Each structure stands twice: as structure tokens, then as C-alpha cells.
């Protein structure tokens, strides 16, 4: 059976740089939806995403973690700062779980606060919300170009599907598939797609996600590309296993070379 060619893209860090939006929305989530008492937070301290938030970004997987990290940076007492950053990152996942326990929060609740903050902005000032996302124009143009060549496009995001769709259509991008955090793990999504499509590549800026693809029997044959322009840890580019290629933004065309 002749399958159609499909290329898969992660969203944040691959098609767009959403760091400003994440900071703004996470702050709004803390301020408006999460906390009744803002006494302990320097809510006005950073208008723009601070350096520490940008530095921690490569460790973050889900939107709810953004809200938690933002809260910790803005905290008046013992905030997450340059002195505490390294020890926090050494045990990142465990530290996040401990914080949830400490505050009696859960990930679903934090994700809902973030989503509510986005819905609020979309309703009040859609243009401003959209303007917080910076597209990687080379990637946007590449997607348009390969679509014309007959490739099918899939975008797999850890944002909500509705938000991802709105940002994509604002960029004049209309992929065949858009998946958000509601759709399950990337491995499961790609595994299902691989049964009906000839997947020509998956471009992602989180190395761990690509490793998971390679470790799964259904998906291990897929060409995985680590997006060099995304949010990478300093060690991410070192000793890449066979199966993960480092992709520079100027070499996107390599994906469709043969
Ligand atoms: Mg990403």
C-alpha cells in the first residue's frame, strides 16, 4: 500500500518562539486564577520574561510547569534565582512534584489556570496575545513550501489544541493534523499516525522526547531531528545517538532532499 508522506513538527521552539507568551500568561495565571492572596509575590517585578525563566525553559515539558516556575521566580521569600537554580535543575522533576505537594496544588489545576489566562486574553485582546508569539519564519515558509509539494503536515504541541490552532491559522498555516496536550503522549500519537502515513521526519527541540520515539518499537524507524534553533540544554547537542540528527534552520530542505 502506498502511504502519503507526512512530516511532523513540534510547536513551541520549532515553529514559534512562545517564551514571552508563556511568561505573560503564567504570570496572569498566578495573579488572576491561582492565588487568592498575592502578598507573597512580586507580581510587578518582571514585565518581560526574565533571564532565569528563559534558562529554565529547556527543562520544562508541560504548560503547568511554566506556572509553577513563574510562581517560584516571583516569590518574595526564597525565590528561584541564580543561586538556587542549579540545584533546582539537578533534580527538576522531583523538585516540581515537591512544590505541588507543598502548596497542595496539582498539575491539572495549574494547567487549567494557564488555559483560563489564555482564554481571558483571547477574549479581551486577541491581537496582543497573538503578538506575544514570535514565528520562526524559515520554518513557516518551509511548511508552506512542502505542503505545495504534496506533503501532509502534522503539528504536535503540548499546548492546548485550540490555542495551537489559533496561532497556526494566524500564520496562514493549516496542517492536516494538530494535536494538543489533550491527545496523549507524542509517542502514542506518532505511533498511531505511522500506521497510515509514511512519516518522513519528526522535528522537535526536546531531546528526551526524540529518545522516547527511538525507544518505541512502533516509532523507532522514524527520522528524528533535534531543532538547533529551539530551547536546548547546553549538553543536548553532544553525543547524539544514531537516529537523532541535529538540524540547523538553514538546512530544513534536507528533510525533503530525496
Ligand atoms: Mg518544543
Order of strands, main sheet, comes to 5-4-1-6-7-8
Total domains: 2
CATH topology assignment of the largest domain:
Rossmann fold
Low-confidence runs (pLDDT<50, min 5 residues)?
A: none
Radius of gyration of CA atoms, rounded to a whole number: 19 Å
What is the number of strand segments? Answer: 8
Strand content: 5-15%
The CA-CA distance between the termini, in Å, is 20 Å
Number of helices: 10
Distinct small molecules: magnesium ion
Structural class: alpha/beta
CATH class of the largest domain: Alpha Beta
How are helices and strands ordered from N to C? EEHHHHHHEHEHEHEHEE
Query: Roughly what percent helix?
Result: 40-55%
From the spread of the alpha carbons, the general shape counts as globular
Mean pLDDT reading: 95
CATH architectural name of the largest domain: 3-Layer(aba) Sandwich
Strand count, sense and barrel status of the largest sheet are: 6 strands, parallel
Q: Considering the protein shown, what is the CATH homologous superfamily of the largest domain? A: HAD superfamily/HAD-like
Amino acid at each position: 500500500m502506498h502511504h502519503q508522506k507526512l512530516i511532523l513538527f513540534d510547536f513551541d521552539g520549532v515553529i514559534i518562539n512562545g517564551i514571552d507568551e508563556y511568561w505573560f500568561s503564567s504570570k496572569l495565571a498566578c495573579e488572576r486564577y491561582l492565588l487568592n492572596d498575592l502578598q507573597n509575590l512580586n507580581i510587578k517585578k518582571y514585565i518581560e520574561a526574565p533571564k532565569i525563566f528563559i534558562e529554565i525553559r529547556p527543562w520544562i515539558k508541560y504548560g503547568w510547569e511554566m506556572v509553577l516556575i513563574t510562581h517560584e521566580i516571583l516569590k518574595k521569600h526564597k525565590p528561584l534565582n541564580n543561586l538556587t537554580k542549579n540545584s533546582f535543575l539537578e533534580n527538576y522533576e522531583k523538585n516540581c512534584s515537591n512544590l505541588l505537594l507543598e502548596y497542595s496544588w496539582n498539575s491539572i489545576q495549574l494547567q487549567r489556570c494557564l488555559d483560563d489566562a489564555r482564554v481571558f486574553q483571547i477574549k479581551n485582546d486577541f491581537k496582543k496575545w497573538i503578538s506575544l508569539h514570535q514565528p520562526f519564519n524559515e520554518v513557516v515558509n518551509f511548511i508552506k513550501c512542502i505542503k505545495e509539494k504534496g506533503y501532509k503536515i502534522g503539528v504536535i504541541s503540548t499546548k492546548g489544541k485550540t490555542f495551537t490552532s489559533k496561532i497556526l491559522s494566524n500564520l496562514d498555516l493549516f496542517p492536516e493534523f494538530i494535536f494538543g496536550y489533550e491527545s496523549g503522549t507524542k509517542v502514542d500519537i506518532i505511533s498511531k499516525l505511522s500506521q497510515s502515513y509514511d512519516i518522513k521526519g519528526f522535528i522537535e527541540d526536546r531531546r528526551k522526547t526524540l529518545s522516547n520515539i527511538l525507544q518505541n518499537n512502533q516509532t523507532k524507524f522514524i527520522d528524528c531531528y533535534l531543532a538547533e534553533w529551539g530551547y536546548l540544554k547546553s549538553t543536548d547537542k553532544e553525543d547524539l545517538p544514531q537516529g537523532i540528527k541535529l538540524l540547523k534552520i538553514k538546512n530544513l530542505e534536507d528533510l525533503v532532499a530525496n
